[in-house]
Design brief:
With 570 residues, this protein is α/β, with parallel strands linked by helices. It has helices at residues 15-22, 42-73, 83-107, 129-140, 144-157, 175-183, 227-236, 274-287, 311-321, 360-367, 369-372, 384-395, 398-407, 416-429, 432-442, 452-460, 480-489, 495-502, 506-518, 527-539, and strands spanning 118-120, 123-125, 166-169, 187-188, 191-192, 206-209, 211-213, 218-222, 239-243, 256-260, 297-302, 326-329, 355-358, 411-415, 476-478, 521-524, 552-554. The longest helix is centred in the first third of the chain and has 32 residues, at 42-73.
Length: 570
């Protein structure tokens, strides 16, 4: 079979995603559908058109099902970037439908005549066979097989989907520096100022990742290049296999290495294999990106290449792996045993420690009337932030959608500083029900002698939601400063810990450093402090690639206390 080198048809409207992929090392090289004939008759051309249309509609249906799942599960479904991928598939369907109509027009009326199609041996022959052939060629050049491969690999071997298609840069502008730019601008009346508008980045210093999974920690690139296409590219660019061993070594097999006989000292990119350039670009982008203080893992999936059959191709794959990339080929693809799409939802709690360190911001959310009463009547004295929280709560309750799932069966602790501040706020502005929940939450009188089941039963009396039976109340209050001081004395703290501590208030110092020193997951809604810590660590990393900050989960929304009217007695 000749190598498939056809470009995509110029009228293909799904240009955004495809151009992204085309610029990123031939990830849209597609193979012809297995069922197609070598030379189409009108019957096979219409059948191919119908097949591709049906498959594209099926893919769209699967994507729509996943988007519906996101909408019903997540507070903010847009956190998972799927819309652009769906738009590209929808555009591909429009192109396929257009080609289908054009094929029907090319076939024309089946009534015999000088200007119409003819019947030969029971098969309709197009009145314009050249046009039909071009249209079938356009069908076979569709991007659909690539989109199908991306979706199949994502749904079959990935979890915690973040994006289907996302560009990453290595031009020195990291997430940490972006946050620094934003935080360094000062604050306006409504909070932190927005970051300055950045100039357009150089796409030549970027890579387009097809699947961002494992809650951002895994990048997957899909290439549907075929064996013949890769060999054709190697021959065209002067890459050949050579042996660095004599015929008697290694059982007479030798070791195949890649050589470009046209390459010069300048290392012209024009002579570089696209797959190898892809591997290098992925590594550069990953090295410039950190997700929770770690570089993303890299995986390239090449489903149409069979490793072990062509030594020259094996050499290409080994070269890719030299960049620290996992390469999956036809024979090593992960078994697609997953059913449904729930595994593609974000999974922020999967790496939580068995004990959680709870910040003051979420302690307030756990006792607020806003969290526990389903239909709080709006009052003129409510601050607009309170009104907004009530509206958000009606859409998706915080306790049932995030906080209780996050705490699922885990022990809960809070530092003395956080607990004391929490109690001060509740005593100052809390309602009687909020004060009661606070005493239950911390095991304060009269609940100090209650066991967990009894506390949960009392808590249930003050909540419109079903309190989970495995909620580990009361929360244990711990002396953070003693633990932090002991770690300092024993020299167990990285110097950057001291630098981080300089910019924190007493409460935040106790909460975040206690979680850091003990290795516990800290849960909070204080995104500003979390970002501040991350920026400080990145500024003081000093070449220590293994340095990691505290394990922090940020709840995107919190709950204030309702607050009392000046004239209200409760």
């Amino acid at each position: 079979m000749a190598p498939h080198t056809h470009p995509h048809v110029s009228e293909n409207p799904s240009s955004t995603s495809d151009k992204e992929s085309d610029n990123d090392n031939a990830s849209t090289d597609t193979a012809k559908p297995e069922s197609q004939a070598t030379e189409p008759s009108s019957r096979t051309s219409t059948a191919l058109s119908a097949q591709l249309n049906q498959e594209c509609k099926h893919l769209l249906s699967q994507i729509d099902t996943y988007q519906s799942l996101l909408a019903s599960t997540l507070r903010n479904p847009q956190l998972v970037e799927v819309r652009q991928f769906r738009s590209s598939v929808a555009s591909e369907l429009k192109m396929l439908e257009k080609l289908g109509r054009q094929i029907e027009e090319a076939i024309g009326d089946t009534t015999p005549g000088p200007e119409t199609s003819q019947m030969e041996d029971g098969v309709t022959v197009s009145r314009d066979p050249d046009l039909e052939m071009r249209l079938v060629h356009a069908l076979r050049s569709s991007n659909l097989p690539f989109y199908q491969a991306v979706w199949r690999i994502a749904s079959g071997s990935c979890s915690g989907l973040v994006a289907l298609g996302k560009r990453f840069y290595w031009d020195g502008e990291t997430k940490a520096s972006e946050r620094k730019s934003a935080s360094g601008k000062g604050k306006g009346k409504d909070g932190p100022a927005q970051p300055e508008k950045k100039p357009n980045k150089d796409k030549r210093k970027s890579v387009f990742v097809d699947i961002v999974a494992d809650d951002g920690e895994e990048w997957v690139k899909v290439s549907t290049i075929s064996e013949n296409r890769l060999l054709f590219e190697m021959a065209k660019k002067g890459w050949e296999g050579d042996s660095d061993e004599d015929e008697w070594s290694d059982g007479g097999k030798g070791r195949t290495v890649l050589r470009n006989f046209d390459e010069d000292e300048d290392g012209d990119d024009d002579d570089e294999l696209e797959l190898i350039k892809l591997a290098r670009d992925l590594r550069k982008a990953s090295d410039a990106t950190r997700v929770r203080y770690r570089h993303p893992r890299l995986r390239v999936v090449i489903p149409k290449i069979e490793e072990g059959s062509v030594p020259e191709i094996d050499a290409v794959l080994n070269e890719m792996r030299s960049y620290g990339i996992r390469v999956d080929c036809q024979g090593s693809l992960p078994a697609e045993t997953r059913t449904g799409l729930a595994h593609l939802l974000p999974q922020p709690f999967k790496n939580f420690t068995s004990t959680l360190n709870v910040d003051c911001t979420l302690l307030l959310a756990l006792v607020s009337d806003l969290s526990h009463i389903k239909d709080i009547p709006l009052s003129p004295h409510f601050h607009r932030a309170i009104v907004r929280q009530i509206e958000v709560e009606r859409e998706k309750p915080l306790l049932t959608s995030e906080l209780w799932p996050a705490m699922d069966g885990r022990e809960l602790v809070s530092t003395t500083e956080a607990a004391v501040r929490f109690q001060e706020i509740v005593e100052t502005i809390g309602t009687e029900t909020e004060k009661s929940r606070t005493r239950m939450l911390l095991g304060d009188p009269p609940y100090e002698r209650f066991d967990r089941e009894a506390i949960l039963q009392k808590f249930q009396e003050l909540s419109d939601y079903q309190v989970p039976a495995d909620w580990k109340l009361p929360i244990k209050v711990v002396e953070a400063q003693q633990v932090i001081d002991a770690a300092k004395t024993q020299g167990k703290l990285h110097p950057v810990v001291h630098e981080v501590g300089k910019g924190l208030s007493d409460i935040n110092y106790s909460v975040f450093l206690y979680g850091w020193v003990t290795g516990l997951t800290t849960i909070s809604s204080n995104r500003t402090i979390d970002k501040q810590i991350e920026v400080t660590i990145e500024e003081n990393r000093e070449g220590d690639d293994s340095l990691e900050g505290p394990d922090v989960w940020i709840c995107d929304t919190a709950r204030s206390l309702v607050g009392k009217d000046k004239d209200r007695k409760a």
